[in-house]
Amino acid sequence: MEPSIILALDFSKRQELDHLLSAVKDEELFVKVGMEAFYLYGPKLVDELKQRGHSVFLDLKLHDIPNTVNKAMRGLAGLGVDLINVHASGGSRMMAAAIEGLEAGTSAGEKRPMCIGVTQLTSTSEEMLRKELQISLNMKDSVVTLANLAKNSGLDGVVSSALEVPMIKDACGDEFLTVTPGIRLEGDLAGDQNRVCSPTKARALGSDYIVVGRSITASPDPLAAYVKLKTEWGMTHEIHR
Ligand SMILES: O=C(O)c1cc(=O)[nH]c(=O)n1[C@@H]1O[C@H](COP(=O)(O)O)[C@@H](O)[C@H]1O
Asked: Can you tell me which residues bind substrate (predicted)?
């Protein structure tokens, strides 16, 4: 059973990353390693986090031709991460190839990493969708279309804003995982995020996991921020799968 708050380790300085980890050292953690840290510190960092007993979400948002994604996932599966992602807009063949690659790269007796598809990034607004990306669907319909595509391609869930979770659960079922970034504690700046939500509201909307970066990492007291988040999200909220 892992904690359902995913802490984004978005750092390019190893010292800052270690400082955060030492602030929350007594917590049972589900951490996320994204592009910022992985491109610099790579598989070694993932290995260290696993050695410390943390659950790890490797957030590299793969988006390429099916063959490349398949081969990349074969290698990444060997890192022993718990959760990994692709962009759902890469299409059904790409997503199916990702799952095949993960299965092929997972050693016998081990559990393959759960794989989720990013629907629309939480930094994307309704206006960007329409004007820049020229997508004729509104945000909720676009997110649900991509969630259905991800489900039918064999993925375990999706990344979206918490605001779209009820529609995703209606369309794809309760078991289909929803992982929701764009979480802000009251008073925190949204920054580059457009579709933001508080932890309390995310829980009420039925999110399975919330992803939190700057509300904790940019806080002068990261442990206090993490504990506040845990309280608002609900300490007893656990995922059973
Ligand atoms: O896949 C993700 O994790 C992700 C998808 C998305 O749509 N939006 C999003 O913010 N994220 C990640 O979630 C984290 C959010 O960070 P904060 O905005 O600092 O809480 C970052 O590491 C993003 O890369």
From this structure: 10, 32, 59-68, 122, 184, 193, 213-214
ipTM of the complex: 0.99
Pocket probe mutation, ligand 1, options 211, 212, 229, max atoms within 8 Å of Cβ: 211
Question: 201: part of which helix (H) or strand (E)?
Answer: helix 199-205
Atom of ligand 1 nearest to the CA of 184: 20
The pTM of this model reads 0.95
Whole-number Å distance between alpha carbons of 9 and 6: 9
**How much helix, strand and coil, in percent to the nearest 5, is found in the chain?**
45, 15, 40
Run of H or E residues at 68? helix 66-77
Place domain 5-233 in its CATH homologous superfamily: Aldolase class I (3.20.20.70)
Q: Is the CB of 144 under 6 A from ligand 1?
A: no
In the chain, where the domains are located: 5-233
pLDDT at residue 239 in the model: 41
**pLDDT, tens digit, for every residue of 56-90?**
999 999 999 999 999 999 999 999 999 999 999 99
Distance between Cα 151 and ligand 1 center (Å): 21
CA of 207 to the centre of ligand 1 (A): 15
